[in-house]
Write a structure and sequence with these properties.
alpha+beta; eight-stranded antiparallel β-sheet; two-stranded antiparallel ribbon
Length: about 350
């Protein structure tokens, strides 16, 4: 995976939690592009790509600010001066952070790099606990190559896929947004700074995952036998319902149901069927529609999906059930008539 770093710079936003004062200590020079910088960018790129909090987004239409204006100016004329000016859009973030008493500062690393002929522009918030030692010499920040890189979790990040962004007619999301808020949502002040929009809502993610669960190849039980669709859907429903705050991670879910060698089973199915799905989200109220309700009395067995119990499909009255389905009525009549004809032969 060839990596080519074009430009990289880091600034320090000084903001303590539970305060409304912030300050920026700008670096006067870009970072040296050496082996340590290359290793850092490589690990940051991989950390963003595999982060369970990633949200796919795009820029707001018909709206600009200093971040998007300076970014576009840099993309049109990729010079050192334009890159530094783009990085100083951090001024706008500072004004937004000052309104958030719980927000904290840290080192903001801006980079322009290419991997396998795909170009990326990223800004990543690093804190000291990230395992990166950033030191200041004179008026510029530098990476201390003596430290081991240990990127456990990125606090915040925005990464532009330039190839998709620059391709006319490509409607794929070109922004990857990451925050680590406890509710899994993107911090408003960070989202406003980069003018991110079009992120998938939890309700949409829920609907898309349910569609996958209802159509993906079924897993097998301990004896290698394929389980029924209704049993699988019930198991998936219970799996998410018992998770903390009903949050699901599609990689963990894949491993749980399809085995340790199939952690990307759900993601692969989604990609193959052009279903855009966030890797982690909180399932919504429609999640119960995965359940199939089974009831029986002598001679009658009903399997009804939860969402089909309504006045238009399966209308449950006090002492009778009305099933409104012309297709089902036709099918039952045809099979009844066929069975009657056989008896009369």
């Amino acid at each position: 995976m060839p990596l080519d770093i074009h430009r990289i710079i880091v600034h320090y936003l000084d903001k303590k939690e539970r305060t409304t004062d912030a300050d920026i200590d700008y670096s006067s020079e870009m970072l040296s592009i050496d082996d340590f910088a290359a290793k850092l960018i490589d690990e940051l790129h991989n950390s963003i790509s595999t982060n369970s909090s990633i949200k796919n987004a795009s820029f707001k239409e018909d709206e600009t600010n200093s971040f998007t204006i300076r970014l576009n100016e840099y993309l049109e004329d990729a010079t050192d001066d334009k890159f530094v000016l783009f990085s100083k859009s951090l001024d706008l973030l500072k004004t937004k952070v000052e309104r958030q008493s719980l927000a904290k500062g840290g080192y903001y690393l801006f980079s322009d790099y290419s991997i396998d002929d795909n170009r990326y522009i990223s800004v990543v918030l690093l804190r000291k606990k990230s395992g990166i030692n950033i030191i200041k010499e004179g008026t510029e920040y530098k990476l201390d190559g003596a430290e081991n890189i240990n990127i456990e979790k990125i606090a915040m990040a925005a990464r532009l896929n330039y190839n998709i962004f620059n391709e006319t007619g490509d409607d794929r999301k070109y922004l990857a947004i990451i925050t680590t808020q406890s509710d899994g949502e993107v911090s408003e002040y960070f989202k406003e700074w980069v003018l991110a929009a079009g992120m998938i809502k939890n309700t949409v993610n829920t609907d898309r995952l349910m569609k996958i669960i209802k159509t993906i190849d079924l897993p097998t039980d301990e004896d290698g036998n394929e389980i029924s669709r209704s049993d699988f859907q019930r198991a998936v429903y219970e799996y998410a319902r018992t998770n903390n705050r009903r949050r699901v991670n599609i990689y963990n879910m894949s491993e749980h149901f399809f085995g340790p060698d199939a952690t990307t089973a759900i993601k692969d199915f989604a990609d193959a069927h052009n279903i855009v799905l966030d890797p982690e989200f909180r399932v919504g109220g429609k999640w119960k529609n995965l359940i199939t309700i089974k009831v029986s009395v002598p001679g009658i067995i009903l399997n009804v999906d939860f969402d089909k119990i309504n006045e238009n499909d399966v209308d449950v009255q006090e002492d009778h059930i009305v099933i409104r389905s012309a297709e089902l009525a036709s099918l039952l009549t045809r099979r009844y008539n066929n069975a009657t004809a056989l008896d009369e032969q």
